[in-house]
Amino acid sequence: MDKTGVTISSAQDAARLFQGIFNGAERESIVVAYLDRERRLLATKQIEARRADVENFGERAIIEDALRLDAGGIIVASLSPGEDTSPRENDLALTRRLANSFRNLGLTLHDHLIFGVGEYQSMRSLGLL
Questions:
Q1: Using CB atoms within 10 A as the burial measure, which of 2, 36, 58, 73 is most buried?
Q2: Sheet containing 108-115, strands listed edge to edge, beginning at the edge strand earlier in sequence
Q3: Furthest CA-CA distance within the chain
Q4: CA 22 to the chain's CA centroid
Q5: Are 84 and 114 in contact (CB under 8 A)?
Q6: Residue 48 phi, psi (nearest 5)
Q7: Does pTM surpass 0.90?
Q8: In order along the chain (129 residues), what is the average pLDDT of each group of 10 residues?
């Protein structure tokens, strides 16, 4: 189902979007939701990777996609197939890099959600963003 144009104004809205994307996924992956300045969904992009790849995942492609889409900001979601939704050091590092890069471009990293089995954590709600 295409959810383009839907407004994502809270972690709960984002969780509903990402849960549909992650449903049934078994591998660790990252999904980026690109939003316009009114926080309406422009597009999503999923990147499946082993944890080692996620740790080294660069923000360049995300920034390029955001600029190409004329996005105002993004929400990142990471899937960890286990039950632990605690942000790991690599999750924090990616979040910091993206937040700094986006800030320098006048864009916003709205949140980074970490999903596990049936649960998620919002880095913004945890005060980490």
A1: 73
A2: 41-48, 29-35, 73-79, 108-115, 120-122
A3: 36
A4: 12
A5: no
A6: -90, 140
A7: no
A8: 81 88 73 95 80 56 91 90 78 86 92 86 90
